[in-house]
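Morning - flavin-adenine dinucleotide inputs below, output right after.
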Amino acid sequence: MTEHTTRVDVGIVGGGPAGLMTALLLKRRGISAAVIETRTKDTIHHTQRAGILEAATVDMLVDAEVGSRVLTAGHEHEGTVLSFDGEAHRIDFQALVGRSVWLYPQNEVFFDLANAWEREGGEIHWAVTDTEVHGVETASPRISFTDAHAAQRSIEADLIIGTDGSRSMCRKLIPEAVRTDHFISYPFAWFGILCEAPPTAPELIYANSELGFALISQRNETVQRMYFQCDPDTDVQSWSEDAIFDHIQAVLGTEGGVQLKRGPIIEKTVLPFRSYVCDPLSHGRLVLAGDAGHTVPPTGAKGLNLAFADVRALVPRVEEFITELRENRTADPAKGSEGPESKEPGAAVETPEALRRYSRTALDRVWKAQNFSYWATNLLHRQPEENPFTHQRRRGEFEAITGSVYGQAYFADSYTGWSD
Ligand SMILES: Cc1cc2nc3c(=O)[nH]c(=O)nc-3n(C[C@H](O)[C@H](O)[C@H](O)COP(=O)(O)OP(=O)(O)OC[C@H]3O[C@@H](n4cnc5c(N)ncnc54)[C@H](O)[C@@H]3O)c2cc1C
């Protein structure tokens, strides 16, 4: 069977937000990219994931001129509410750190980016199978796959970017001898629902009580997103609609305060919690970005935002690397796709310094976000070994945050996202 081959500067595995934003920003800098994605565009567009965007993420969408509707269809949140045993405290982001976050669902972020990439004629293959990545330790890496029409295809490039999500196959191409996998799991999960109801509150409410954690979030005027803490093995069918709303209301407090707006539940999912970091994020002619390189529990709303922060750090370093390659080729065309360290075709190459720097810069932020996500998760969730002492200790920690402008500022600064 004939294999169709494309030749680009950068081959990208994974057409989620990290992969598409990278492809678009590279194109803006004159660097060609091709993207492959295992799912269909429609499936990703209809999968609920993140909802909170840091200001820097919004700026990227606006600056990239992808026609994102974030500013027209999204909602600016100037603060959030932390509730403990029914007592609510608002953290005023704008007053504390002069930044907001935006509620704009990840599936819409994805849709805006995918439409922009297709509109600009970018190469993308949806619903591929049999993805394999070859030769990442050489100067001529390649992706092979079967496309949606069962044709065998190949993308040859100078660099492969793995943005293939938390179950990344790309990261396994970094040999165990040079890769450290930092991983922890948590003894609880989130039970997430999507329901047809008006918003319960104008901003997110993160709540803790002796029953555990609950989060009131929004999607739009008629559909809402809510979560509560559950056992990772929970069967979603074992919870009726009434039981779900009664439980969330009990975490918020039943007397006075916030009253849940209820409506038909149209989706129920259980979301396990993990913290993971791959170190390094670059090896030979492969780099990782987004969930492929790290996963955080969702409490701090950091996952999607970290993926975009990776892209901000990565794109200038890829440009530096590709520019250097081009200069070398112009100076000595015989070097073909080899870098400054030119060797025999197929020989092992060093990881370019620009890509090593990307890994160091990105990991600095990743570990800050890991710390915040871990800390917020432990502050807001009930531990299996909870007893009256640990609950009261948590109350003390909660008051240390909400009762002081310094505590509030720590939360606001971390949640809205540190400057690069
Ligand atoms: C329920 C939930 C709530 C969340 N809430 C938040 C939040 O409020 N704020 C926040 O910042 N983050 C949140 N996150 C995390 C956020 O969704 C992720 O961090 C984000 O999706 C990362 O983007 P990505 O592009 O790196 O990975 P992904 O979005 O996972 O994209 C990776 C893509 O690669 C594709 N792929 C995988 N393997 C292959 C292969 N072999 N070949 C080709 N393609 C492949 C996948 O199909 C996928 O589309 C949440 C996550 C979940 C699940």
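Note: Residues 13-19, 36-39, 44, 49-52, 106, 128, 131, 163-165, 169, 192, 271, 290-291, 298, 301-305, 307 surround flavin-adenine dinucleotide (CB under 6 Å).

O.
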